[in-house]
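Consortium newsletter contribution from the modelling node. Members have asked for a concrete example of what our holo predictions look like. Here is one, prepared for the oxalic acid complex that several groups have been discussing at recent meetings.
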Amino acid sequence: MTSGRNSSGVAGSIRPKPSTSSISRSRTVTVVFHSSVDDPEEWIPRLCDLLPGVEIRQSSEITDASSVRVGVFWDQPPEGLSAYTALVAVLSLGAGIDQLAPETIPPGVQLARLVDPNFASLMTEYCLLGVLRFYRNLHAYERASQWTPARLAQREEFVVGVMGLGTLGSAVAARLAANGFPVRGWSARQKRITDVDCYAGQEALLQFAAGLQCLICLLPLTPATTGILDARLFAHLQRNAVLINVGRGAHLVQPDLLAALESGQLAGAMLDVFCKEPLPADHPFWRNDRILITPHVAAVSDPKTGAPIIAANIRRALRGDPLLNVVDRARGY
Ligand code: NDP
Ligand code: OXD
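And here is the predicted structure:
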């Protein structure tokens, strides 16, 4: 891991690089970089190596914002975007874009997300780990203080549902199916994935959820998906089901999760994403021993694999070509 989505965890350098502030200040800056969680010292030198002649600076170093044409951001710079009057493209450092407040990005600015095959492999690993942890009852043994073997379910009884069948969800669903779990998937438009029972649309949501033993959320955060992990959905799962949320914190209705864990409708949850990150120290989730918290690390951006993908889109933006992995602004993902 070279960088995570936890602001406290900016990782060490992966190779010696010049400080970005030592780069000549006289040249016209065309690309601005900002992230409250990714280390600019890891990203900017890599991007500069890939884009000779292109001047890339952190937002805090920019004196003339009017020359900037491309923004490479995890989240928006604190000063906002209004000074960047020549902006033609915003490139997300993440797979998701909700953290960029896309509704405030002018409609004429192309918005693209990061689609890095490395994300899919990390996310698949994380979800498989989570499913196996629950399936093999480790969540119960982690809390136990007595020798009490739990009943091991048959794999074919442990039905896993994946919400969101995009780049990440489809890879996760296929991997779980290859590991012998019965898998259902749910998306906006109908999908076909080998050995995955695919459902589509709001009208199929409860049918998709009915009797699931494990629910994984890999949806993007949009008005249609905000609060989707709620009491009504939990009530359709099998009693003692488990939840893995790797989408966004606001997918989850927090009091509904706590109530479902209290009533036994849910037996455990593994949460990687939160409405406020880092999750505040006094948040009740920290005190609930049925919740395993990870600090937004299910799949993390790696400049080694991510910078060439972002650089390709910077080149496109500067040439005036359509971007790869463009966000559909109407759909919101
Ligand atoms: P994609 O855009 O490739 O896929 C999104 C999927 O969600 C699509 O299958 C889409 O359906 C489905 N979807 C969207 N809206 C709805 C809806 N209203 N009803 C049903 N299905 C819907 O995204 P990715 O797979 O690349 O990433 C998904 C999310 O994962 C990101 O947005 C981010 O929030 C999260 N993420 C979390 C990380 C972590 O470390 N925790 C790391 C990376 C991403 P359709 O295909 O029909 O359009
Ligand atoms: C995300 C990411 O979108 O880490 O969550 O890429």
